[in-house]
Amino acid sequence: MRRNIHYFKRKLDNRQKLILCTIPSGSAVIYLFFTLLIVDPSAGLFHTTVTPMTDEINPVELLIGLAYVIATTLLFAYAIVGTQVFYFGKLSSSWALLLIGISLNTFADYYYYYAENFGEFIRSNPVQGIWVVSTMVVCYALYKHVKESRLLFAIALVVVAAL
Q1: Assign residue 151 a region: left if phi > 0, alpha if psi is -120 to 50, beta otherwise?
Q2: How many domains does the chain divide into?
Q3: 71-114 tens-digit pLDDT
């Protein structure tokens, strides 16, 4: 058992720390920019006009949406770091599926909070399907993780018994 624990690092790399800091903070800045300012692309892509919003957004809803966006992108950042840790291991496929499911959920949440701020979200929105698919992918990834973990545990027991 001590040999297996030896391969795990106690500290995060600088790249992993950068991922954990920049993804949630950058996502919060982008969310606030597009929520507080109306972008009118009618003049073309490079001649967009940005006008500040006045009374359309409730500040409490804005802060709640911002908190959820930060939380969901923090979960996404941790999934990226977890996938990097298990990239060369036996659990890489389950962590890749977990990352895909969490990224779909992050996209759907991001769209929902943006649309909800403007009162444009309806229950028949196609983002509901993205939530369902992301949940199914995450459930399958967790099932696959448990299945592979049991197999690895059984192999470890056989190896220990052989010693």
Answers
A1: alpha
A2: 1
A3: 999 999 989 988 888 777 777 888 889 999 999 999 998 888 87
Give the C-alpha distances (Å, rounded to integers) separating 122 from 34, 100, 113, 118, 128: 20, 25, 12, 11, 10
Q: Are 109 and 69 in contact (CB under 8 A)?
A: yes
> Mean pLDDT, to the nearest integer, of 10-36?
85
User: In the numeric block, which tokens belong to residue 9?
Assistant: 């690092």
Q: Is residue 1 part of a domain?
A: no
Closest C-alpha among 34, 50, 30, 31 to residue 42: 50
Q: Which domain holds residue 99?
A: 13-162
Taking CA atoms, 146 is separated from 31, 129, 140, in Å, by 36, 26, 10
Return the C-alpha torsion angle 12, 18, 19, 25, nearest 10. 130
The predicted structure's pLDDT at residue 1: 42
In a domain, residue 137? The reply is yes
Q: Is 96 domain-assigned? A: yes
Contact 33, 52 (CB under 8 A): no
Structure tokens at 7: 């391969």
- In a domain, residue 66? The reply is yes
